[in-house]
Design the sequence.
């Protein structure tokens, strides 16, 4: 089976069932299942995420991006410090960057206060962290390739054309 | 009282109406149906291209361009043809037209005199025949065959060449069959034509949509560049049908005449579309690759499903159509498409709409989401099961 095709299909529709995928690819459900397990085991598929526009709910929600300057450790580079940051459940994504600060941390929280507490009490005190710059997200327009709140045009092609 | 019958040109009256017209009217009465009938991509035009168009409008690029098209675009077209198909043209051998359709019209009008014969392999796109007859030409058909995967062969062409033959239309990748010509097919056809006074009108509008085979233009074969009018455009490869932009490249003498006709009837192709097209040629390889990948998944899906349900379907290597043989249903292609529409509300186009040799087949377009295709295939399967009893 062509794993790339499985990945293409799941990238477009993470909710596609094993049955759907088997039907589309003309493979047995057993084979599709094995292929997906293998992709998950090898951390090629790392998760299946739902894109939620929290602004449309009544729940409190605030996202922030934090530039973190840090010092590498002898023997471990940035990996150890990255792991310490990544383990906090508030952190939704973490990347090592080129440019002015070493890390970019995205966090999801309920209130600004929570963000401030996270930065002041958890992030900044980590050994090796030199400084932080916190940026609050005001509004999201596109998340993981999905346009937020921008309607896709409906198919208005002629039903029959040459 | 005026007698319009006397007024309207006899040739225009006799011109073959588009074969899909009748079916179009039937489907129009069932707007809720699931259609597999379109001849255009489902993807939006890539954003970079749309952005370039908007930018050109902001800058006030709203005037006529030169008749033959923007020089920058014509140069990019030659670069693109070189990069993609290793073809060498000068920019003044390029004329920019209102879709590939206008280029077809111009090419035939530039060549034909009363009684000249044009060889047209069928099934094929619906406009070659009516434009030929309107221009006074005489269509000479070749019925391509399912056992050849709907490729026209050099031998079939040789059999219909006469001293009146002025041109041959080669339309590959083909609408409606999805057929492509392989290197060896093109070589044989080139060998046949290279010493003859016959022009090839090579409609390559689907050239970027091939699967498992790289498109080659007949213009690249020895002795053929001087005999080929290559027509291509932006509609299918770049998903730009509504922008109405195509082009022709070919021998200077013929292109100049085409530009002269174009001057009188069109003036110049849409300016906004031309600015957008420059970006399409320069920056959109990834977009094409993305679309081709999606089409390929759908293509494989449709071919397999149709064969599984008992409609023999050869594996098409180009465009975005499959062309199942429906004779096992004991219906004509018209009857099949009409019954499928009435009983299951699925619209497909009878193969006969694309010429006599399309009888016994139907055209199914896969320019739709997989979800849409799966529902349609489910219904076609039900339709076959119910009609087998």
Sequence:
């Amino acid at each position: 089976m062509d794993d790339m095709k499985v990945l293409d299909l799941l990238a477009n529709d993470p909710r596609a069932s094993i049955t759907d995928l088997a039907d589309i690819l003309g493979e047995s459900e057993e084979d599709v299942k094995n292929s997906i397990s293998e992709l998950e085991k090898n951390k090629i598929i790392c998760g299946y995420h739902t894109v939620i526009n929290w602004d449309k709910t009544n729940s409190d929600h605030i996202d922030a991006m934090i530039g973190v300057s840090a010092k590498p450790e002898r023997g471990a580079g940035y990996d150890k410090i990255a792991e310490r940051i990544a383990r906090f459940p508030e952190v939704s994504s973490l990347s090592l960057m080129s440019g002015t600060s070493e890390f970019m941390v995205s966090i999801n929280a309920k209130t600004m206060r929570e963000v401030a507490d996270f930065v002041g009490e958890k992030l900044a005190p980590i050994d090796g962290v030199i400084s932080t710059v916190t940026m609050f997200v005001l509004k999201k327009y596109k998340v993981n390739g999905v346009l937020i709140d921008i309607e896709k045009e409906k198919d208005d092609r002629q039903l029959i054309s040459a | 009282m005026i007698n319009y019958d006397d007024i309207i040109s006899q040739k225009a009256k006799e011109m073959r109406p588009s074969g899909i017209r009748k079916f179009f009217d039937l489907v129009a009465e069932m707007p809720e149906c699931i259609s597999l009938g379109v001849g255009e991509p489902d993807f939006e035009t890539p954003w970079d291209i749309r952005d370039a168009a908007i930018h050109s409008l902001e800058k006030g690029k709203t005037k006529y361009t030169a008749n033959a098209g923007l020089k920058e675009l014509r140069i990019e077209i030659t670069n693109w043809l070189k990069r993609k198909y290793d073809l060498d043209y000068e920019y003044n051998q390029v004329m920019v037209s209102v879709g590939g359709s206008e280029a077809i019209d111009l090419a035939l009008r530039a060549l034909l005199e009363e009684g000249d014969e044009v060889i047209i392999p069928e099934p094929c796109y619906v406009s070659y025949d009516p434009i030929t007859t309107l221009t006074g030409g005489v269509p000479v058909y070749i019925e391509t065959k399912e056992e050849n995967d709907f490729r026209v062969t050099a031998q079939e062409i040789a059999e219909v060449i006469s001293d009146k033959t002025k041109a041959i239309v080669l339309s590959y990748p083909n609408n409606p069959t999805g057929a492509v010509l392989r290197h060896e097919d093109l070589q044989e056809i080139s060998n046949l034509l290279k010493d003859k006074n016959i022009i090839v009108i090579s409609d390559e509008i689907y050239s970027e949509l091939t699967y498992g085979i790289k498109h080659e233009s007949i213009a690249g074969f020895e002795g053929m560049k001087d005999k080929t009018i290559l027509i291509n455009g932006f509609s299918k490869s770049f998903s730009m049908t509504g922008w109405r932009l195509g082009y022709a490249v070919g021998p200077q003498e013929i292109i100049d005449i085409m530009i002269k006709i174009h001057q009188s009837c069109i003036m110049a192709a849409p300016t906004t579309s031309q600015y957008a097209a420059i970006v399409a040629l320069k920056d959109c390889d990834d977009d094409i690759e993305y679309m081709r990948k999606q089409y390929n998944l759908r293509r494989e899906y449709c071919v397999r499903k149709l064969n599984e349900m008992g409609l023999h379907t050869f594996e098409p290597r180009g465009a975005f159509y499959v062309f199942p043989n429906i004779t096992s249903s004991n219906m004509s292609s018209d009857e099949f498409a009409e019954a499928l529409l009435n009983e299951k509300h699925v619209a497909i186009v009878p193969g006969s709409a694309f010429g006599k040799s399309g009888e016994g087949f139907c055209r199914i377009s896969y320019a739709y989401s997989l979800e849409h295709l799966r529902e349609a295939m489910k219904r076609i399967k039900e339709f076959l099961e119910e009609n087998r009893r």
The domain at 56-139 of chain A is CATH 3.30.70.920 (Alpha-Beta Plaits).
